[in-house]
Batch of 4 targets.
Target 1
Amino acid sequence: MSNITYLVTMNQGNQKVDRPQRIIMLKVYKREDLPSDFGLNYHTHLLCHRGRVDFKFNDLNQSCKGGEFLFWFARSNLADLQFSKRFNATVLLVENHFLNSNIPDQNWGIDAALHSRQYPVKALNDKKDRKRILTNFQLLNAKFQDKGHHFYEEALKLQMRLFIFEMWHTFVNEYERRKRSLQTGTLYERFRQLIEDNCMTEREVQFYANQLNITAKYLNAISKQNSGVTASEWIQRFTRERIVRMLQNEKLNIAEISDEMGFSSRSFFTRYVKKILGFTPTEYRNRLG
């Protein structure tokens, strides 16, 4: 990895602290062109022009080649990056907290996040899609660089939201096509779709087994056979994703999140979050800064 770090000094109270630069756009030809902290502090948007990159994502071997788009979340389970000799890509890195705090629609954000955590590589239909993505990169980077703008912070946040809308628009057909295929798929695929649709309020294996007209024991066996993960573990993973997304939305208070997820009390919600995140909701938000 590159030894280059992208930091800016900010005032916090009476102290000056270094924070990751919010937007970075760069050309990448080899592993060393990426900053050393890219996987920790940044969401990675990669438009591959030529060659390929192989990697392990959530312990599965995957690759992205010329004409495809790749998205990695900050702090993803990512390993074993290998770039081909002729690799050429444009990469846009967006600082973790800045992107998460500017998601314009939480429901769409959750759906897109769940999809991308399973399918980080996305095929592009034509040159128009590639041009749209590259233009989107350039517009966000240009707004970030325009520090003389009188309404700089407001304009940058609006551009960040527009960037997200444009990316969702580019891949909306893929999201919807995948959802339709799951609705008519195998029991395991239907189970995964049911979790996406219901895990905001339903966190028991028996609920999903009832929807599929099978026993909870059989559902666990199907899940374990197809993915190596039990049904209860999948439910917890999807629920965790939604809780994290909502806690990152500063417009929602903790009581509202607890109510929306159907918890009988805030204290019960706090204990549940502590169990799956290792922090209480308040502690988690404090860690976000």
Target 2
Amino acid sequence: MQKKELRSKYKALRSQLSENDVETMSMAIANQLLAMPIWDKTYFHIFLPITEQKEVDTELILHLLSGKDKEILISKADFETRKMTHFLLTDNTKIKKNEYNIPEPVDGIEVPSNKIEVVFIPLLAYDKQGHRVGYGKGFYDRFLGECTPETIKIGLSFFEAEESIKDTHDDDIRMDYCITPKNSYNFK
């Protein structure tokens, strides 16, 4: 399937999920992460979910990271430049939803992309080669391009992998892993 078709398919599938489905599957994803070889790292970037889009609820992952004394980073998107700025999540961080209902930090301590060791990536669909389909604005493609080659890229999805995405590009940055409620895909 093409990215455009996959976007439509997975937006429709997510829209059918109940609040309870989202909560239960998000918990299963957080539990799957405990077995991942990432816990020796320090700087973790995580997305705050757009609840209206029924994205994976990352609250439990935030609790895991906090309980393991990790440095947690969240981003603010600039829709003109299509770039993201990353801020350290602290007790003083004020979160506000932007015009697209994305929860973002108002301000804070900025951290450069090349310092981030693990990135949890929101997505709509992905394939068995580690290619992902997002909302199509390219924010994460730009962001992942700024990270070091050693940065571990982990997609989070309620659904299993597609066989392949037809319209990928050579410069697409593939994920290293994708975690679902039932499986951990390793693309390395």
Target 3
Amino acid sequence: MDTRSSFSSICMLWISVCVGLHSGESVISVSGDLGSTAVLPCELKSVDIETHIRWRTESEIVFKRKGESFSQGDGYEDRVDVPVEELRKGNCSLVLRNLQLTDTNVYMSIQMVRRIKRSVTTEFKEISRVSLSVREKPPEEKSDEVSSPTDVVGMVHPHPLIMISITALISYFLVLLFYEETWL
């Protein structure tokens, strides 16, 4: 194995480790103004007709949806939804309207999956954790803008180690390309 391929292998392993470490521990931060709407992001890897999704805090159920049927937790009536059309596309984001100061909390999205082998079992898979903070806004500045997580398009920024690793890898390949061209 030559030096280039061993370095490439090490870079790829490092990137895999960084991505793996980052994926299981992230909490997405979302903030919104009092009275506005916030979207708490969530994306499913697999979807079926009867996908069962649940949003909760440590102390209470906020929203549940299974197919067309849904229920809203106490204090969240007529303010929360995971639109069924979006859920069918794998988007399990919770839309929380008319934000109140008491909505500041950490929310967890959970997918309930039924397994049928010898017996029927139900597994609960946590999909995302979202920390919502609600800000008071002076009355003259109130708006109905939708808050977004971490950036304008709803993307979560990658961990800095991942960005450093990717930058190093790209730099390595650019240097290799430059040196190969100068040797030709």
Target 4
Amino acid sequence: MLSRIWMLLAAVLIAAPAAAADQTAGCGGEIPCAVAGGEYRIALPAGWQGGPAVMFLHGYGSSGAKVIANAGLVKAFTARGYAVIAPSGLPWRQGKPADWSVRDGWNTYPRNDLAFLRAVLEDAAANVGVDPDRLLLSGFSRGGSMVWEVACLAPGFAAAYAAVSGGFWLPMTQECKGPVQLLHIHGFADTVVPLEGRAIPGSEAGIVQGDIWQGLQLWRRQNSCPSNAAGHEAADGVWRKRWECRSGGLELILHQGGHGLPKGWSAMALDWFEGLER
């Protein structure tokens, strides 16, 4: 009987650290983590002992819960040892879809998202050991626009930034606060966020998406990049340009599709991110 008790005790002690990691201090997976101003979801790799993370900002009208429910997206990062942090935006006005505080001349958004994202990162670092110095901030569509905003307003927030299908809106800023490592991924045939920008039909305040090319020109100035790209690649419907910059770095990936996350984008982003550390 005594030996059975010791065996049970040993099993409990061995399982305890894994259980604690799975629960993420009372949240994780489908259970939201609450911080000042809102909430986020988080998914951890198997055997997580702390380490790098991808913070992914959802598109307009979506949520952190929907990001974490996207098993393919999450697995692409956790399989390579990254925690996935998925904050949730807020409705830009009562009864409206969730959004981010992108500067676009429309000032009804109720939260300081930069302060919120900092609170999310601090909470994830304190509770599960996310390394703030190894954070990749990524996002899609309006979330991609928020990636550009954070990179511009707080370049030291993340180690690098990877935006997909979203950039600056008008009135476009003319100067950012420092150089960054930025990867931008966009569909050549995107009609929702066209590369050349567009006015949003029927918008209440004449909201206009900025020209991605003009935004990239700003980043070239900010990162002290030459006008001409240092590297060009084209294969399998994907075109890449890379600039050798004196401060920070800049790379553009165009794919032949429309407004969406292209196949293999997560591997491209992580390969680029990990290449920065070498």
